[in-house]
Design brief:
This protein has 128 residues and is an all-alpha fold. Helices cover 70% and strands 0% of the residues. One of its GO terms (molecular function) is RNA binding. Keywords: Repeat.
Length: 128
């Protein structure tokens, strides 16, 4: 039986392979199984595509999530930042803050991680 745990293993394995065709087949399998809107699987699919540099598919997978959780937001921010699309990554980070998923405390760890990733990607040329 294909449950979310088995499917997560498939998505993780495909991510490690780096084969886009296998990733697309895994995504299709998740879709056909009816688990597409599972937050952990959805985040895994976003990560899987981002590891392959396929930002279009990563974004489409993110958009398919009805209510993206913090892990999903982190995956899409990381996807864009790691491919050098820092402005787009920061746009997602700003949108994330508007969702209420991050507590308004200024010292929340996630409040620092995304801007630091973008700053590092820019080569530390300006302040975060």
């Amino acid at each position: 039986m294909l449950n979310e745990f088995v499917l997560n293993g498939v998505v993780t394995a495909c991510s490690g392979l780096g084969e886009l065709r296998a990733a697309q087949q895994a995504h299709c399998l998740v879709f056909k199984s009816g688990h597409l809107f599972d937050l952990f699987l959805g985040s895994g699919i976003v990560n899987m595509y981002s590891h392959m540099g396929d930002l279009e598919s990563a974004f489409a997978a993110f958009e398919d999530l009805e209510n993206p959780g913090l892990a999903s937001w982190a995956a899409i921010i990381k996807a864009y930042a790691s491919e050098g699309h820092v402005e787009r990554a920061m746009d997602f980070f700003r949108k994330l803050h508007g969702t209420g998923l991050i507590p308004s405390m200024p010292y929340h760890p996630f409040s620092l991680v995304a801007p630091l990733l973008v700053w590092l990607r820019l080569g530390c040329k300006s302040t975060p």
